Every structure is written in C-alpha cells, then in structure tokens.
Amino acid sequence: MDRYAVIGHPVEHSKSPLIHAAFARQTEQQLEYGKIQAPLDGFAGTVADLRARGYLGANVTVPFKFEAYALASELTERALNAGAVNTLSFKDGSIQGDNTDGVGLVRDILHNLKFPLAGKRVLLLGAGGAAEGVLGPLLEALPAKLWIANRTVEKAEAMAGRAGKAVLVPEASSFEALAGQVFDVIINATSSGLSNDKLPLPVGLFAPEALAYDMMYGREMPFMVYARAEGVQHIADGLGMLVEQAAEAFYIWRQVRPDTAPVIKALRES
Ligand code: ATR
C-alpha cells in the first residue's frame, strides 16, 4: 500500500488523515495516510526514517514548514515564493518540496465561496509564516490592490519588498494606519485568534458585500466577531482552505483531483 503522513508537533488534532482517507475512497486510490509527531529537534531524522520505510510523501505542519523547505532537494516556484514547504514528495534520490497553502486559500475563495479576487481590493492581516505562504498565489489572482497590515510594521514592509517580482507591489502598514481604507476581501492570517486577542482594526474597512476570511477554523474567532459587528454578511473560516490545500497535495502525489465539496461538508457537519 502506498503510504503518506502528516508530520507536525503537536499533530494529534490534525484533520489531514480524515481528509486524505475521504479523497482516497472517493477517487478509488489505494493508499494509507497517517500522522506522525516528530520530536522538535528531530524533523530531518523523521523524514529519513519515513523514506527508509518506503513512504512516498508527507504533509508538513507547524512548526516544521521552514525545516522542510531547507531539507528539500528540489523546490517548486510556489515553495520558493512562500519560503516554506507543506508538501514533500519522496523520489528515488530526491525530496521535492511544494507549498499548497496559498493555492488552497485562493481556490477556496474563488471556487467554493465564489468570490472574485481579480480587480478587488484585498487586505492581508499578518506577516508571519501563514501570511507569507499565501501572498504569491493572492498576487497571481491579480487584485487591484494588495495591502499587508501587521502589528510589527517592519515585517509587513519586508514581506511586501520580497514580493518584488509581482506586477503589483503590495502596500504595507500597521493596523491603525488602515483607517480610511476600504477593502472587498480581508483575510486574517495572524495567529491572534489562538490567544483570543482582538486586532486593533479601525471601523469602516469593509466595502458593501465584502468577504471576511479567517484562516483559522474550529470556532468563532475574534476577527469574525469584529466582521459581524461591522455588518459583514460573508464571513468564512479556514476549513475550506484546509481541504483545498490537501486536495492540491493529493493531486501532486496521485495526479487525481478529488471533489472537495463533499469533504468540506462532511467536516463541517462532524
Ligand atoms: P504563523 O505561522 O501562524 O504565521 P508566525 O510566523 O509566528 O506564525 O506569525 C504570527 C503572526 O500573527 C504575525 O503576523 C504576528 O504579528 P507580529 O509579526 O507583530 O508578531 C501576528 N500576531 C500574533 N499574535 C498577535 C496578536 N495578539 N495581535 C496582533 N498580531 C498578532
């Protein structure tokens, strides 16, 4: 049986095994997908062990996406842009690293939520690993404007600067300096929801019919509460992105694209 796994620390709550099992059933692919907690100082050793045991690939989650980037012997353009890897493919003499997070977010917004990004004013909140991972695919969706706001402004500025190859150069600022701006899509890529912290966002940032998207999932995040208080009708969490990034990894490994809609629906109901 072809074998894959998600590697993380912690990893016990990962939904990836459920998602990939559903994809495998749906597409009649014979594979096993497990979860493996690597020691915090033992990511490379865990990958070596999986390769020795004949695994064909792995997903990589917190906190190993940068180590996976360093370990891969070949990187796709998406991984290079993101500076991080969430999907590894083990070939005979090589480890290919890719990043499906950004494409997962964009596909969720465009195809599942049916929100256009082309020509729209997009605000990305955060300048850590999660934000960096989605910036390239967001720019490729050709928004009219892409603005990065972060608590530490220097990080937002550095991130905007690194997106140098793009047609559109992102703008960067603090949260407070957003006052007076209006956006069609606002994406929360900060980890502030984990500590239940509210972001110091000004009022009036949302255009009529705007989308508020929180990349976290599992419960109502403070950013979603803020969006609701601002009268936003279209509010989404990151569950669709989770399933879409998995579908892209599945496609990389199996060259088969699963139908994500029933899997998102089942996860939401469970
Ligand atoms: P991740 O991989 O989740 O992106 P990270 O690289 O540590 O984790 O980045 C966390 C992001 O969330 C950063 O943009 C961080 O802001 P700083 O760059 O100023 O640290 C942001 N963040 C985390 N907690 C926050 C909070 N309570 N308020 C505002 N921003 C927060």
Tell me the count of domains.
2
Helix content: 25-40%
CATH class category label of the largest domain: Alpha Beta
- How much of the polypeptide forms β-strand, as a percent range? 15-25%
| CATH architecture annotation name of the largest domain | 3-Layer(aba) Sandwich
> What is the CA-atom radius of gyration, in angstroms?
18 Å
The CATH homology group name of the largest domain = NAD(P)-binding Rossmann-like Domain
Chain oligomer state: single chain
Note the main sheet: 6 strands, mixed
How are the elements arranged and paired?
Blueprint: E1 2-8, H1 16-27, E2 31-37, H2 43-52, E3 57-60, H3 65-71, E4 74-75, H4 77-82, E5 87-90, E6 95-98, H5 101-112, E7 121-125, H6 129-140, E8 145-149, H7 153-162, E9 171-173, E10 183-188, E11 206-214, H8 222-229, E12 234-236, H9 239-254, H10 261-269
Parallel strand pairs: 1-2, 1-3, 4-6, 7-8, 7-10, 8-9, 10-11, 11-12
Antiparallel strand pairs: 3-5, 5-6
Helix pairs in contact: 1-9, 5-6, 5-9
The structure holds 2'-monophosphoadenosine-5'-diphosphate.
Folded structure, characterized:
It is a single chain. The strands form two sheets. Strands 2-1-3-5-6-4 form a six-stranded mixed sheet, with helices on both faces. The radius of gyration is 18 Å and the shape is globular. By secondary structure, the chain is an alpha/beta fold. The protein starts with a strand and ends with a helix. The protein is built from ten helices and twelve strands. Helix 1 packs across helix 9 and helix 5 packs across helix 6. It has two domains: 127 residues, Leucine Dehydrogenase, chain A, domain 1 (Rossmann fold, 3-Layer(aba) Sandwich); 136 residues, NAD(P)-binding Rossmann-like Domain (Rossmann fold), CATH 3.40.50. The structure holds 2'-monophosphoadenosine-5'-diphosphate. 2'-monophosphoadenosine-5'-diphosphate binds next to helix 6.
